[in-house]
Amino acid sequence: MPKEPKPPNVSDYLAAERTFLAWIRTGIAFMGFGFVVARFGLFLERLALLEPAVKPGHQGLSIWFGTAMIVMGVATNCFSAWHHARLVRQLNDGDLSFTKMSAPAMVTALVLAGMGLALAIYLVTV
Predict the structure, then answer these.
(1) 60-79, pLDDT tens digit by residue?
(2) Of 34, 52, 56, 81, which one has the greatest count of Cβ atoms within 10 A?
(3) pTM
């Protein structure tokens, strides 16, 4: 006997809203941290000018990693908005079968793991 879909209640919408806001905070954190990483190379160059004992490094990779994190933050916010709109539409339609894995969460986690690994390799080898 098939189950009759139950109508969503307010707590379902509020839970979706909390999750959406958590993803927005995550995207903003990516963008802020990316800015810091991108400008860290510039900080080291300025420090080398003031302190002759400090060996000046090149800032090429910090700009790329920082920019990649900023783009990741923008993508996270876009994907979270899309996912939230889809989820609210499903709640409104009464389709509460959430058996799918969150693709934006998985992509974000894998890309960040790759970026972290690349940054760790860079820090160890330079």
Answers:
(1) 677 888 888 888 888 888 88
(2) 34
(3) 0.66
